[in-house]
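Reply to dn_fold:

You asked what the input looked like. This is it:
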Amino acid sequence: MNLHPKHLKTFVAVCHEGSMKRAGESLRRSRSAVSYSIEELERDVGGRLFERHERGMLPTEIGTVLLRRVEGAFAEMGRARQMLEDMADVQGVKLLNAPIFALSVGKRRLEVLLAFADLMHMGAVAARLGISQPAVSLAVRDLDVSTGLPLFQRSDGAMRLTAAGAALLLHLKRALAELRHASAEIAMLSGKIEGKVTVGALPFGGALILPMSIARLQSKHPNLNIATVEGSFETLAAGLWCGDIDLVVGALQPVGQYTTLVSEKLFDDWIAIIARSGHPLAQDPNASLSDALQARWVLPGEGTPTRSALTALLDAHRLPHPRVTVETSDPATIRGLLLESDLITAAAQRIFHHDIQTGALTRLPLVSGAVHRSIGIIRRAPERSSPGARLLMDELRAVGRAHAEWSGPPR
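and this is what came back:
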């Protein structure tokens, strides 16, 4: 984060009041202090935030971008404050007007809070940030008492977030994501596409289109950095909601409690039953789905799209569920087990396309055209995404369209 958060309240006041003098009066700050905050922010963004007109100080194009993102960040902190007020009412205490609700704290304090929420250890935070342990302790203590509600609690010798601390942290991450995106949008105004895009890659689905999409994007914008995070749908959806992740790619699932997330289907991915070419079922032309259900299976866990699609098919035909002896969502592990044993699996045949082409693996024609899952993007509302994330989603859509044109139910 390049912006100094403690100057943002002053910036918004100047935007709304139209002059430094009136902004200073509303904030009870001197004009020189207001001017200093604006100068610091302009140094951060590398350009002018205001132009002087007869009507007063009006935001430049850079200032307009920054204002929209800052107001989004303040809205997140307003929601955090409301949640903590509700908690304080239940506990019969008064919520204090903590500076963090207006992001009026230094970057170091915010870094300490985020690091401590992640590591929950004073020494580890000090090592990560390169500061002394007493400095970490002081920052945590100040934050802990600033709201009137404890944000941390010690249990079994370890520090943990309280419910209030967890709520504050989630909305703080979303607020800081807005500020990161502001920096990227301002850079884009001068023709620079830079920054970092973090993509949540779901097992199987993301591997189909993500590598090609990233390669296409970086050929056009080499200064854009891409990081992928692998995990369960629940973990990645939570990371997307709080701003740690910019988008999630893979098999679509209901977003559950994260009702503000948007699912966008790119194409349907058809599933086949796959085994090694020498598998007894592959040698039997009369093998049926019932026969396959007597074999041993390797499948992703319950609730995953592939497993759910297969289960729905079997239930519709009143067939028993397969005997799953290995549960994993790692394609490399599944591939190794298929090649080295008589285990079989249900998966998109494109995942094992090379091995099927070379003849090492084969598709058993038992559920052709019957089972599929939808592959797509899960994102926040478009106006909340960073420029780099929007560009990557454009590439994913283009690659997804190509997949949709030539793909279809296996025959």
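Residues 61-91 form the longest helix (31 residues).
Hope that clears it up.
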